[in-house]
Amino acid sequence: MQHAMPPLSALRAFEATARLGSVTAAAHELSVTHGAVSRQLRSLDEHFGVALFAKAGRGLELTNQGEQLQRDVGEAFARLRDSCTQLKRDVEDAPFTLACPGSLLARWLIPRLDRLHSELPEINLQVVVSENEHAFKRSDVSAILAFSAPPWPADVEVIELIAEQICAVASPRLAEQADPEHPETLFSSKLLYTTSRPQAWPQWANAHALDTALLDQALDAGQGFEHLYYLMEAAMAGLGVAIVPKLIAEDDLRSGRLIAPWGDIETSARLCLWLPRHVTQRRSVQLAEWLKRELDDTLLSR
User: Fold this and answer.
1) 172 upstream amide cis, omega within 30 of 0
2) What digits encode the pLDDT tens for the residues 121-163?
3) Which residues pair with 193 in a beta bridge?
4) 281 to 86, 270, 289: CA distances (angstroms)
5) Distance (Å, rounded) from C-alpha 248 to C-alpha 165?
6) Is the predicted pLDDT of residue 1 greater than 90, yes or no?
7) Which run of H or E residues covers position 202?
8) In Å, how far from its chain's centre is CA 131?
9) How many Å apart are CA 204 and CA 223, to the nearest integer?
10) H and E: helices and strands count for the chain
11) Can you tell me the distance from the alpha carbon of 4 to that of 59, in angstroms, rounded to the nearest whole number?
12) Which domains does the chain have, with CATH numbers?
């Protein structure tokens, strides 16, 4: 005597047919053909050794054995549907926590948070500060927004949003002392940089074909800061010329608090939205699309 469970697909076909009263309706709900449902029903008859449906005119009706199975299977599938619906609701209602560096949060995202909440209220966005890509070690982090360069880790899904551009910025008073046509003139000012991005000034100098010996001397006399936020504050206070991502300086450049007369260069880094692989959700896609629109608007307004 066969005691094994029949295939779940066959039980789904049976439950849908019994509930809807029609093979055609069941096939439509399950997105399969009429013949596929009929084959699943026949396989159940063979499995149990008894007919579960009988012809009634041009339709079907449950046999006594079919009614017995329908009571239990119908209740089981109803509980499964309720459980899946509740789980999906719980996931979508839970806060979507975005981790990003403090400078990016303060200088670019916070001025746009009100619009983000207004346009995507269903995301229930929460933001936390993280200065590196290891934020996924926190169980509550849903995504990371950060500048980073490939290759990407294999265990994350990376959505590239915009190429990174860096520029040398200074207060208006300090910038007046340098000649925009001769970028090397800024070496007479104190160079400011973040200790986490020592390669930024060399990248900028190489792109402008500047003397690396002069750069090294200027950096020896320069000043490093642990965080980009402090670096920009120092630049606005007139302490020197800072090398920064243009996106983060965007609002300060537009307001005139900072000036970048020497232009910008593109690096290999990208502003990316990092997502746990295999867990890409509707809210992640919505957030990525919103960020792309905002970044496009930023580029158009330059």
Assistant:
1) no
2) 988 899 998 876 666 666 678 899 999 888 888 888 899 999 9
3) 224
4) 16, 22, 13
5) 10
6) no
7) helix 200-207
8) 17
9) 17
10) 12, 10
11) 30
12) 8-93 (1.10.10.10), 96-160+270-300 (3.40.190.10), 164-268 (3.40.190.10)
Regarding pTM above 0.70, the answer is no
Strand duo 241-245 + 156-169: pairing: antiparallel
Amino acid at position 195, single letter: T
Q: Among 167, 177, 179, 193, which residue's Cα sits nearest to residue 250?
A: 167
Name all contacts of 154-157 with Cβ < 8 Å and 24+ positions apart: 154/277, 155/276, 155/277, 156/274, 156/275, 156/276, 156/277, 157/274, 157/275, 157/276, 157/277, 157/278, 157/280
13-46 pLDDT, tens per residue? 999 998 988 899 999 999 999 999 999 999 999 9
Show the beta-strand stretches assigned E in the chain: 53-56, 59-62, 96-100, 125-129, 143-148, 156-169, 191-194, 223-225, 241-245, 264-276
Look up residue 135 and give its two tokens: 């934020």
Q: Are 171 and 259 in contact (CB under 8 A)?
A: yes
